Amino acid sequence: MNWIPLTSIEQLEEIQKKSEPFVIFKHSTRCPVSSMAKRNVEFESVLLPETVPTYFLDLIKFRELSNTVAKTWNIRHESPQILLISNDQCVYHASHNEINVADLVVKINQLNS
After folding, report:
1. Which domains does the chain have, with CATH numbers?
2. Are 56 and 42 a contacting pair, CB within 8 Å?
3. pLDDT tens digits, 75-111
4. Is 79 in contact with 26 (CB distance < 8 Å)?
5. Do residues 22 and 81 make contact, with C-beta atoms less than 8 angstroms apart?
6. Whole-number pLDDT of residue 1
7. Which pairing describes strands 22-27 and 81-86: parallel, antiparallel, or unpaired?
8. Pick from 75, 16, 82, 7: which is nearest to 48 by CA?
9. Tell me, what DSSP letter sits at residue 45?
10. Residue partners of 10: CB distance under 8 A and separation at least 6
């Protein structure tokens, strides 16, 4: 899995300008449920199109950035949480046990058709 660390507001503002879809995975390093979700995403990452960047947000280190993500796309903050952003819109999000890479891929494919 080629996680791209999401570490600054400036980086967030830059990727927000993209029209192509991208994924943000919000992870709490202190939470066993989040660790399990991260492992599942990594295991199923072969399903994700290589053209879709996947950003990793450590919300313990970057809590304010995580809050900005929630505010920017009007999504309630949760952890773990996965977001699919396209044209500056959150078109899919899931948290906890609802995180499913296959569902994410279906949504990505819908965007590409």
Report:
1. 4-112 (3.40.30.10)
2. no
3. 998 899 999 999 999 999 999 989 999 999 999 999 9
4. yes
5. no
6. 80
7. antiparallel
8. 82
9. G
10. none
